[in-house]
Amino acid sequence: MTVHPGVEPGSTFRLSDIWTNERSRSLVIQIAALVVLLATLGWIINNTVQNLENLGVETGYGFLGHPASYDINQRLIDYTSRSTHARAALVGFLNTVLVAVTGIIFATLLGFMVGILRLSNNWLVSRLMTAYIEFTRNVPVLLHILLWYGIVVHVLPHPRQAIEPVSGLFLSNRGFYLPRPIFEDFAWVIPASLIVTLVGLFLFARHARRVQERTGRIYPVLSISLAAIVAAPVIAYFASGSPVSLDWPALKGFNYQGGIALKPEFFALWFALSIYTAAFIAEIVRSGIVAVSHGQTEAAFSLGIKPGWTMRLVIIPQALRVIVPPLISQYLNLTKNSSLAIAVGYMDLTATIGRISLNQTGRALECMSILLTIYLLISLTISAFMNWYNRRIRLVER
Amino acid sequence: MRKLILLIAAGALAAVTSVAGAATLDDVRAKGHVQCGINTGLPGFAFKDEAGDWQGFDVDYCKALAAAVFGDAGAVKYTNLTGATRFEALKAGEIDVLSRNTTWTYSRDNDLKLTFVGVNYYDGQGFIVNKALGVESAHDLEGASVCIQTGTTTELNLADFFRANGMSYEPVPIENNEEARQNYLAGRCDVYTTDRSGLAATRAALDNPDDHVVLPEIISKEPLGPLVRHGDDEWGDIARWTLNALILAEEYGIDSGNVNDLAQGTNNPEINRMLGTEGEFGAMLRLDQDWVVNVINAVGNYAEIFDRNIGPDTPIGLSRGVNASYLDGGILYAPPFR
């Protein structure tokens, strides 16, 4: 048992000891803080219940099963105005996931490229990247979204005068239209061949690593993998008798019909979020690379390791340890910023359940609680995945 | 646990907005002005004049209410609300009355717990298109892109109309009338749909109004009117009878020009009751005896408000149509002041 400083063993307890004793004082402060916190929460809850009762507002989630009665223009699953509010929320959720995932992928690629290029010895390239980063990250993301929406809607022509830069691709202020692949019988052969190839390449890479560890012989794993990934689907495509045809977009009446439509709302949101987040990622990447001591490079060179390999095998793995934790925050930011979709009318989770459903049913607290829960789940999922990745790439000490 | 989270979220909402208690009239008197929810901008109905003051058909109702309560049409402050924010603002007590071309429907009345105090404009939903498209009927709109304000009844009518007629369309959701105008002019949508009064107002504000045409179809009933929260009948009655007084004044030929003369006393008992020279009608609503005189002095009667803001001689150019007094063949009709 330890003796508390300030309390002499055997001495009688005095009331003032509660304050003069460091340990009991901190305990008292913590209890007081907890009581204040709980009292505030209790007051808020009580106030809400009281107010809701006074207003006679009915609460409950039953409205989720009622027809939503409104239409949604961009959707990944079937939806009509007779579908339920729950389904409208699902459509919105998938749209949020779509823009978050594609945004994260593009922002990461662009961010890594810009971050590395900013360290380039080429004066023009590094200054251009600096200008891009400083301009992009110092303008609020909402302005980026509105800017790109404005550019698409006001600069591009009406569908009837759509620009066709390459055959089958149409650019207009109602969106970008691409041919859509239609998969016929035997089309499953193509993805199947790709999966088989990937499994094969995984086994080959493991074998190559073992050979290298045992004998020092190095197989060109990367180039073989790339060639196989490209070749396998192409061979499968022709071997199975070209089972994929294209649905070409065509102007019918007011709009293009058929094909894949990339709406201006989606494009503006996706592009703006990506380039905005990419600027932050670029800085994170740069800081990660700079954080690796130059001695590491010199050591690798003195061992005769080629510059490209030095980057891939020595610098990047160490830089990643610095890069990944702040990268998680950026991914979460991008996902949460996607709720700005409302500004340009992209029908994400916030716009469907958090806006139209809320407004048409008046179930504000219920809709907000659903919104809160789902965004929390999305963010926690991203966070959990990235934390797993972070643990994987941690410096392994031998 | 989920209930707890819900309650906490609710608390955050409720804690910041003190919900007005039962006696809205006392609260309004205590703060010295009526807080009136209006549109973010719709020519003729709620717009800023050159001096930067809010004017319009819906705004005049706010002024009339302020005149009824305070005898001063200036004792009003405005909160600009979108279609999506208006009901929450009213329910949370941020505003005392909502006068924002809002359609009276069953579920808004009974599910959202709001009280519509009457109809000040009988409207219907229509479509506006560019003449160059050569569209003559809403039934020609198969596959069109349609700009639509979210959170409105028009959004639901639109879905119903296209579904009932077996046509497809692309909804382009937008937030307010100004955004709709921009998207429509930029060609993001072929058609803009809202209440026909709003279409007339929007069309009037375009550079070349004659290039655009409002299609003949009226696809819904949109009775527009002011509304208050459930739970305070006295305040609801004040709001209701302010509107009725405007309509009755037109029926009895009381206008801003003659109201002060008529308030000296006439041989028509109904006019005398309204203008406070007979009976104790003001006290029944805890208002001044001459509250109707104040209202008419401030904004005029219904016809004056209509003609000044949206009538045939304004750029909006709406005719009275069904919104004429029942005496002139319309359906505008107020209960007797007795």
Which word captures the global form of chain A?
Answer: globular
Poorly predicted regions of chain A: none
Top-tier CATH class of the largest domain in chain B:
Alpha Beta
**Oligomeric form of this entry?**
heterodimer
E-strand count of chain A:
7
Walkthrough of the structure:
The radius of gyration of chain A is 29 Å and the shape is globular. The model of chain A has no long low-confidence stretch (mean pLDDT 88). Chain A has a domain at 85-156 and 263-393: Orthogonal Bundle (MetI-like fold). Helix content of chain A is 65%, strand content 6%. In chain A, the strands form 3 sheets. In chain A, strands 1-2-7 form a 3-stranded antiparallel β-sheet. In chain A, a hairpin with a 2-residue loop joins strand 1 and strand 2 (175-178). Chain A starts with 16 loop residues before the first helix and ends in a 6-residue tail after the last helix. Chain A has 398 residues and is mainly α. Chain B is of the alpha/beta class and 338 residues long. Chain B has 2 domains: 21-122 and 223-328, Periplasmic binding protein-like II (D-Maltodextrin-Binding Protein, domain 2, 3-Layer(aba) Sandwich), CATH 3.40.190.10; 125-220, Periplasmic binding protein-like II (D-Maltodextrin-Binding Protein, domain 2), CATH 3.40.190. Helix content of chain B is 38%, strand content 17%. Chain B has 14 helices and 14 strands. Chain B has helices at residues 2-16, 24-31, 57-70, 86-91, 106-110, 153-164, 177-186, 196-204, 233-251, 259-262, 269-275, 281-284, 291-299, 302-309, and strands spanning 34-39, 47-48, 54-55, 76-81, 97-98, 114-116, 121-123, 125-130, 144-149, 169-174, 191-195, 212-214, 222-224, 227-229. In chain B, the strands form 5 sheets. In chain B, strands 10-9-11-8-12 form a 5-stranded mixed β-sheet, sandwiched between helices. In chain B, helix 3 (57-70) packs across helix 9. The model of chain B is unreliable at 14-20 (pLDDT under 50). Chains A and B meet through helix 2, helix 11 and helix 12 of A and helix 1, helix 4, helix 6 and strand 10 of B.
